[in-house]
Specification:
4-stranded antiparallel beta sheet; single chain; binds adenosine-5'-triphosphate; alpha/beta; globular
């Protein structure tokens, strides 16, 4: 294999190929299948942000969760850094998951109220048995600084922070295991509009400085335009359109994307 071919392959952090997900729905007597993701193919390069947009129920979250191994697709393959993650055993997948982290809309609600900021950021490293206690302490401080939480706050508890600050804590916890791929699922939707821009700017700065690959799920087209290099539009589980953010926003190919853009007042 030529060197340039090798580089192109390594450059792909996430590769979804013909991924479908069917959920069984209904009760004991009337069972049916719901196709949440329908034959979707998508790739994310190193240092690239791919925005996933579409109306509620179009399959964005399901595809995001499939991308980091939280949901197993019914068919298709998911490669992260060249590795088919569903070909891994349970323990191997657990270890591999370090490379892929998810930031949820309500991540901050799941922070343990009995832990200090220092402990909350150290927790993912402790659970994975990574680093010495001293090193975890130092790393947690650096991570708090990276998400712009003051050193003086390291002893405070989750409930003492605002919504935006709690989402910064979740971001720091997501970064603690040095991931290469982040799936951010509506990460600012639960925040006040005034706080959203600051958290988005932080996320973008971190993504750029760490050269992270990211899937950014949002129903807000303006937010997606700000964050993304590439945009994929989902409708009924199908990818209707996938192109550079510039092209998709300036020249949407599908009528559905045009409707989405027209109904987005903040653009
Ligand atoms: N565990 C599940 N069991 C059954 N159906 C599910 C399950 N998870 C998702 N679905 C269905 O799959 C479809 C896609 O859901 P998904 O949450 O991925 O969409 P979404 O685009 O992220 O929506 P939203 O913006 O509202 O979060 C929906 O019709 C949803 O009801």
């Amino acid at each position: 294999m030529k060197t340039d071919q090798l580089e192109t392959q390594n450059d792909l952090v996430l590769e979804l190929t013909n991924v479908s997900k069917e959920f069984k729905v209904g009760g004991m007597f009337k069972r049916s299948k719901h196709v949440a993701v329908d034959n979707a193919s998508l790739s994310v390069k190193r240092n690239q942000v791919v925005g996933l947009v579409g109306e509620s129920g179009s399959g964005k979250s399901t595809l995001g969760r499939i991308s980091i191994g939280l949901i197993k697709p019914t068919s298709g393959s998911v490669r992260v850094l060249g590795q088919d993650i569903f070909a891994l055993g349970k323990d191997e997948l657990r270890l591999y998951r370090r490379k892929m982290q998810m930031i949820f809309q309500d991540s901050s609600n799941s922070l343990n109220p009995r832990m200090s900021l220092q402990e909350l950021i150290e927790e993912p490293m402790r659970v994975q048995n990574l680093y010495s206690a001293e090193e975890r302490r130092i790393r947690a401080r650096a991570l708090a600084d990276e998400v712009q939480l003051a050193e003086g706050w390291l002893g405070r508890y989750a409930h003492e922070f605002s919504g935006g600050q709690r989402q910064r804590i979740s971001i720091a916890r997501g970064l603690a295991l040095e991931p290469e791929l982040i799936v951010a699922d509506e990460p600012v939707s639960a925040l006040d509009v005034s706080v959203q821009a600051r958290v988005l700017n932080l996320l973008k700065d971190i993504q750029e400085s760490r050269s992270l690959s990211m899937i950014f799920v949002s129903h807000d087209m303006a937010v997606v335009e700000f964050m993304s290099d590439q945009v994929a539009v989902l409708y009924n589980g199908k990818i209707m359109e996938n192109g550079s953010a510039e092209d998709v926003f300036a020249n949407p190919k599908s009528a559905y994307t045009r409707t989405l853009l027209d109904s987005s007042p903040s653009l």
